[in-house]
Amino acid sequence: MTKQELKDCHQSIIPYIHKTPVLTSRLLNEISGVELYFKCENFQRMGAFKMRGATHAILRLSEDQKSKGVVTHSSGNFAQALSLAAQSIGIKAYIVMPSNAPQVKKDAVKGYGGEIIECPPTLEDRERTATQIQQEKGATFLHPSNNLNVILGQGTVALELLEEYPDLEYLFTPVGGGGLIAGTALAAHFYGNQCKVIGGEPHEVDDAYRSLQSGKIETNETINTIADGLKTQLGDINFPILQKYVSEIIRVEEQEIITAMKLIWERMKIVVEPSSAVSFAALLHNKERFKGKKVGIILSGGNVDLGNLPFS
Question: Following DSSP, what letter does each residue of the chain receive, concatenated?
């Protein structure tokens, strides 16, 4: 992948996405001892950064592929992103969702024009059902994070941030399936000035941390975290990008995620989901080390179940 490819990707998706704001907070700067710049993808269309990658992946399809639609399996933000991106571009989206997915998520997908196909809640069933739709409808499968065009799309978050603040020394981002951090790492490599990329990951799902240690893709035994968007694991396309361009991954405890989320809600008056707060939690975990530095924090999304907040 090249700097020009990332630039071209950004140009192509501009008509379909919001250029999200960068917010600062004097109070959070004082608490952390760091000069912070929050890139607010919670204000993105459908409420998360995934709109970028979904849009770019669809735009890169041939006219014949577009005519047959796209399919993915997701119960979260990518399901909504692909549905809205497909609707915006004028093609069909088939979304395979586990039968136990929250009704609020199913309603959101339907509201964005996605056609839901339910399946039993196992990864094997999700993959089998998605393959079935590919065969029946001729739809193109798009993976939420392990797809080069998706990764480039997600990289435009950091591209916008670095165009506005080119002298950032560090960029913090959450790590789930690896699409956002891989794209961020590419953007920092191409557009940053010695800018280091650091991932934040819950201890309970620290597969990316362990993968970078072992040199191979690790899996999780448990997925017991409030950061529900980070329960997925790395793929064979994004993992080599992490190995090459990501400085490190900092693991955080559940209480640290809640504290970071609460600080953002209280001090910045904005809504972020738990997964989104993990990047800020990772900075706070070791704030002395970053004292006085200029740091970008990617707030990945704001799709929160308001009936199930981790703080009262």
Answer: --HHHHHHHHHHHGGGS----EE--HHHHHHHTSEEEEEEGGGSGGGBTHHHHHHHHHHTS-HHHHHH-EEEE-SSHHHHHHHHHHHHHT--EEEEEETTS-HHHHHHHHHTTPEEEEE-SSHHHHHHHHHHHHHHH-PEE--SSS-HHHHHHHHHHHHHHHHH-TT-SEEEEE-SSSHHHHHHHHHHHHHSSS-EEEEEEEGGG-HHHHHHHHSS----S----S-GGG-S---TTTHHHHHHH--EEEEE-HHHHHHHHHHIIIII-----HHHHHHHHHHHHTGGGGTT-EEEEEE-B----GGG-S--
Instruction: Tell me whether residue 292 is exposed, middle or buried, using C-beta atoms within 10 angstroms of its C-beta: 0 to 12, 13 to 18, 19 or more.
Output: exposed
In this prediction, the residues of the chain whose per-residue pLDDT falls under 70 are: none
- Among the listed residues 25, 39, 50, 279, the single catalytic one is 50
Q: What is the pLDDT of residues 247-280, one digit of tens each?
A: 999 999 999 999 999 999 999 999 999 999 999 9
Assigned architecture for domain 51-141: 3-Layer(aba) Sandwich (3.40)
Is 75 an annotated catalytic residue?
Answer: yes
Catalytic: 279? no
User: In CATH, what class is 3-48+147-308?
Assistant: alpha beta
In this chain, the answer to whether the domains covering 3-48+147-308 and 51-141 adopt an identical fold is yes
pLDDT value for 55: 98
In the chain, where are the structural domains located? 3-48+147-308, 51-141
Q: Is the dihedral of CA 3, 247, 173, 150 positive or negative?
A: positive
Question: Which of the residues 25, 32, 74, 75 is marked catalytic?
Answer: 75
